[in-house]
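Histidine-type phosphatase
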Amino acid sequence: MGISETMRLGHLAIAAGLAAGFGLTVCGTGALAADATATQPVMGSAPEPMPTGWTLKGVVVLSRHGMRGPTYAVDCDQAGGNPNGCLDAVGQLPWPTLGVVAGHLLPEGYDRVRSMGRYYRLRYAEDGVLPKTGCPVPKSVYFIADTDERVVMTAGAVMDGMFPGCDIDNLVVQGDIYRGPSCGYSKEKSAKSAQDFAGGSWEKAAKGDLAGPIAALDKVVGPLKPEVCTALGLKSPCSSADIPTTDSKPGVINFLSQPAEQLIMQYGSGLPISEVGWGRVAEATGMSTSEGIGYINKIHAFNDWVLNSSPYDAARKGSQVLDVVERNVRDVVEGKGAQFRFLSSHDNYILHVGGLLGLTWKLPSYAEHQVPLAGSIAFEVWQPPAGEPVVRLVYAAQSIDQIRDNPDLTPQSPPGLQVLPVKDCKPGPSGSCAWPAFKKIADHAIIKACVRRS
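Predicted structure tokens:
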């Protein structure tokens, strides 16, 4: 993620309302979770072919960065006396550093992203957007990234996978490309709305669908250190399961969100199974390690979906990124500039766009609404023989086992794929949305005051 993902565990505890004297600082709003998930997609369903005679004009790919190290310090030496300021404070045993500075792309992450780049080349060469061999026509491809190392490196890895040996210089790196102005953002309104979007109660979620994953991750992590128990206002011995969760405060859900996703990083980077979650995942879940990691990540998926896809947060923090997407799609529709555009970003931005467009997904091996590492939503612009173009959204992401094994990805052996219908848009062929309708929906969702134009 972007800014929110860099919070230390101490800040997560504060955000959850666990430290005395602090209130909830999470964000989100809008309709009840049940309303947002009324239409369930088919898991991992590949796109149906577009009608004969339709041509692909171009594609805009909004991607998450690849596999990275923890975004806050593992080592507690830099915690400044705060026992919650480092990952090693969670549990009794040290967490793997994965060999990189906090938040940097892993070497294994680079390799997996490069595999996605090779897949994009093969996939979109099939429909004539990219050449099947050799280098692309100058200015026919375009890459955008913010200034985070893992995001820039992800764009570079995709370029390497798509066009090895070529000179591709059309890369824009801009720190605030996806981040708009504050536009009157209210933490209090956000917190109340997040509660509504979570179904009215974080506690109900923790004791309901998330009870099993929370219990499993609690077994994996084990008891917390005594000083952490004290900092959280708990008596020692304690564990993460003891962290209070209320209707309005996400408590244990928020606390365990990032540790849950770290299991994917450990597994995907190729650590021995005995070192992934200290070898405890299978026993804690009663599943294989990869299945257990997917099960535990229901915590992370739910937490991040609620905080980023709810209408209040999505509109105020996501208007900028949706504006960037829409402007690039419009250029493709109008035949201006590059036919292939890659927007390297973070999972929170994908969740913002998902909230604004009413998207829902469940990709193979992942929990509903989880944003996989290096996964992307492709906004494909298709032109029928007559009439207006349509936009088809296709999510592509390597499964948890594909991230670990890094197999060759081809149109015949692809990553997980799923078409995402746009809510409130009359579906066209293969779940597409007519461009005028897509533009109208996006324009209505975007708050202009929350958009920064360069």
